[in-house]
Amino acid sequence: QAQLVESGGGQVQAGGSLRLSCVASGGTFSMYHLGWFRQTPGKQREFVAEIMRSGGDTYYADSVKGRCTISRDNAKNTVNLQIDFLKPEDTAVYYCAARMSTTFRYDYWGQGTQVTVST
After folding, report:
1. Residue 102 pLDDT class (50, 70, 90 cuts)
2. Among 2, 90, 100, 115, which residue is least crowded by beta carbons within 10 Å?
């Protein structure tokens, strides 16, 4: 069973960049597909990006495509999310998550890290 801990959130001005990291423990990291999601108060959690366990395939929400890069390091049990050209609407709590390849449901979640983008 994976435990996930995010870091790297903070406050940044619009147009800036942030790199979020998530370290996993427990389970076999290389067996998991990994994703980043975000949530703002009063809204449902939304998908941001996903990377397959091999690291070869990545997927992005339209809202971040072209501004966002997800990557993983299976040797360090980490998954990262680089977000460039940040916009105020990127303000949210960002969560990393993991799922086994046998399911589409993300079963393991971190506690979240706050990203605030100011104008």
Report:
1. confident
2. 100
